[in-house]
Batch of 2 targets.
Target 1
Amino acid sequence: MMHSNECPGRAKLRVATKNVQGKKSPQNHRQNCDTSKGWKAQQSSEIFHQDYAFLDELRQSDIQELKKAHRSAKKAGNAPLADRIHRNLLRLENQQKAETVRQKLEQTRAELRRENIERMNRGERPVYLNNAELVARANCGTTAVSPNRVECITDND
């Protein structure tokens, strides 16, 4: 009999109940399922980003703290420390920018999926975009893309 929390085609996980070196045995186990067994990689990615959304807030607070520390290190005249703090600050800012770009692309893909479903329901053909056209649509830029493929919606329209 298969329980609802078990993955199909997987043996049941066995958890050691023995107390090793005074450590507690883990209570909750997230079962790993193959993507071919029902879980899509996209859903897994969404679950990951939902579970670790608090890291974005931590990254933002770290950026604010590093900016303050960088200003104080520059005022104190400690150039090597200020340089190290500045590199860490740039790294965190780049991570934040990459995350926003990823979110924009995911949102654009979801919008395109909804549009294609609506188009197919009306009897029209779906629109398939390559990566360059997706990025252009996400950024609302029409460079190097045919104008009839990418529609940029702005507040001015």
Target 2
Amino acid sequence: YTGPGGGLYTGPGGGLYTGPCSNPYVSNWPPPHILIQELRKRNMNNIVDYLINMGFIDYAY
């Protein structure tokens, strides 16, 4: 949705807003190569395989 409050809206409250905000978007996803390393470290290879097979991550370290 490109209107006010929508994910594609570039104004205040929208997902693509680039101005100042008191409640900015934050993400805690690590870079893909770090995610793969950490999942493998925890022996979660089935999740690694799934992510690669589904195209979410197109390479493996």
